[in-house]
Amino acid sequence: MTAPASLVAVARRLAFVRETEGPNRGAWVSMLQRFAGGREGDSWCADFVSFVLDVAHHGQPPVGRTGSCQALLTAGRALGAEVTDPAPEDLFLLVNEAGHAHHCGIVTAASPLAGIAGNTSPDGLSDNGTGVFEHPITAAPPRIAFLRLKQKESDE
Question: pTM here?
Fold first, then answer.
C-alpha cells in the first residue's frame, strides 16, 4: 500500500480557496461541500478536512467522508485515535461546552500550536470565516481535541 502524502502539504496546496459568491459559497467551496455530501451554504471546514484526508490517503482515508466535525471526532475516537500531544499532521477539533465538535482543521506546528482549516479567518478566531487559512490555534483542552489518524490497513 502506498504511504499517505503529508496532510499539511495537501492542505497548504488549497490555501487559495476563498468564499467568492457569498457566505459558504464559491466554486471551490461548493466542490468541497459536494465531495463530502454537503450542500451549498453549509459550513465546510469538515468538508475541507475530508477532502485533504482522501487525497493524502490516495482515496483510502482512515475515516469516511463527512461534512460534520462531530462525525469526524466520533469516528476518530472509535479508532482510538485521540491524543493529547498534538503534532503536525494531526486533526484538531474545537468543541463547545457540551463536548460537541464545531470546527476542525489540520495541525501544522506543535510549538507554538498552529493549524490550517477551511471556513475560517486569517487569524483563526472564526469558525465560519471566508477561506482556507493557516493560523495559530488558541483554544485549550477541554475545548480542543486532537486525532492522530493512520492509514487503513489493506485488504490485500
Answer: 0.94
Q: What are phi and psi of 66, to 5 degrees?
A: -160, 150
Amino acid symbol at 97? E
Q: Which residues pair with 134 in a beta bridge?
A: 116
Nearest one of 40, 63, 39 to 51, comparing CA atoms: 63
pLDDT, tens digit (0-9, with 9 covering 90-100), for 10-30? 999 999 999 999 999 999 999
CA torsion 126-131-137-143 (nearest 10°) is: 50
Instruction: Kindly write down the DSSP assignment for every residue of 143-154, as one continuous string.
Output: SEEEE---PPPP
Rounded-to-integer distance, Cα 9 and Cα 38, Å: 24
| 54, 66 contact by CB (below 8 A) | no
